Amino acid sequence: MRPLKWERSTGIYLLVFSFFLLVPFFYDNRTILFLMTQIFIFGIFAMSYDLLLGFTGIVSFGHAMFFGIGAYSVSVIIDRNEPTMGYLLLGTIVGIVIAGVVSLLAGLLTLRLKSHFYAMLTLALAGLFLVLAEKWRGVTGGNDGFTMQIPEFFKDRGHLYLTCLVSLIVLFFLVRRFTQSPTGRVVMAIRENEQRVESIGFSIMFYKVAVSVISGIVASIAGVLYILSLRFVDTSVFATDVTLDALLMTIIGGVGTLVGPLIGAGLIEVAHHYLSELASVHWIFERWLILFGIVYILAVIFFPRGIVGSLQYMWAKRSAKKKSSSKEKDLAS
After folding, report:
1. CA-to-CA distance for 166 and 224, rounded, in angstroms?
2. Where is the chain membrane-spanning (predicted)?
């Protein structure tokens, strides 16, 4: 990897993250802290999806599988033993290992072919894990799920908030570093033109599988944090809706931008929270996903680059125009 290079955007990100780190020290509203925690968790999850879709061009219909693996690994191990930090760490490691192995197998089996085979296999595997969780009631509690105790440290909402935020910051900079590395450049080149990258000697399969494994592991960590915030797990963590949420967050925020999915996660979680509260006003707000379906269609038609992608495009266009006009002035003088 190249040595770390300080960029102006890094300073902006650190400034924004620093602001959020200070929030629990001067604002302790439990509802808002919980909402922010959910945004950080789904921001991590959407970022893992963007790594697949936005940076590599791989579509997954079963990304919730990795989220659910992380959630159930921690829940079952803590529930069967004691709610201590040691068992939480053990459950997290188990979740990461299982997610890594499953994503490795899914990648090895399908990524040699077209990416829609990966999409279909992940959808089938997510369905398989869902059925397994429903039928293995003795361990998973079936559709009813189960509640569990968590380590004392995370019962404090402020501590959980900071843990989720720090996890987001660390994962964001790690994934960003990966996408800016030579390996990340090859991954993005694969997204643009697989045949050309293969013709110059790179192993397409290796890079795609590597991204699949990294993405699966990051998604499983989001699942672990999600369960800590709810203290309850059921089979909904494997549902297709969870994958669709990640897709929506990525598309609305901006595919292939990393920051975009975080903004998308913020918009959707805030809208979900406040629209659900309006359910008593009109029945349409109970089906808030319908509204997001409309937003998704409009976003794809009018803003295919998403919020961040559109802003980057406008900025690049403006810079190019400025350079062109300054060149013209130089020539005229």
Report:
1. 14
2. 12-27, 33-52, 59-78, 84-109, 116-133, 158-175, 205-227, 247-268, 288-308
Q: Which residues pair with 232 in a beta bridge?
A: 147
Q: Name which of 217, 213, 165, 180 is nearest 42 in CA terms.
A: 165
**C-alpha closest to that of 67 among 78, 75, 59:** 75
- Transcribe 250-262 into DSSP letters: HHHH-TT-SHHHH
Decide: 243 and 64 in contact? Cβ < 8 Å. Answer: yes
Count Cβ neighbours within 10 Å for each residue of 224-260 and write b for 16 or more, e otherwise: bbbbbbbeebbbebbbeebbbbbbbbbbbbbbbbbbb
DSSP result, 99-112 = HHHHHHHHHHHHTT
What 3-state DSSP class applies to 150?
Answer: coil
Work out whether the CA dihedral 118, 119, 121, 127 comes out positive or negative.
positive
- Write phi, then psi, for 254 (nearest 5 degrees): 135, 110
pLDDT, one tens digit per residue, over 132-174 is 998 888 888 888 889 989 999 998 888 999 999 999 999 999 9
Coil/strand/helix, residue 181: coil
Contact 276, 292 (CB under 8 A): no
Q: Which residue has the tokens 């490795």?
A: 104
Residue of 235, 80, 86, 265 whose CA lies nearest to 164: 265
Amino acid sitting at position 236: S
Tell me the per-residue pLDDT of 59-106, one tens digit each, with 9 for 90 and over. 888 899 999 999 999 999 999 898 899 999 999 999 999 999 999 988
Displacement of CA 260 from its chain's centroid (Å): 11
How far is the C-alpha of 80 from the C-alpha of 91, rounded, in Å? 11
Say if CB 146 and CB 75 are below 8 A apart.
yes
Backbone angles phi, psi at 6, to 5 degrees: -75, 125
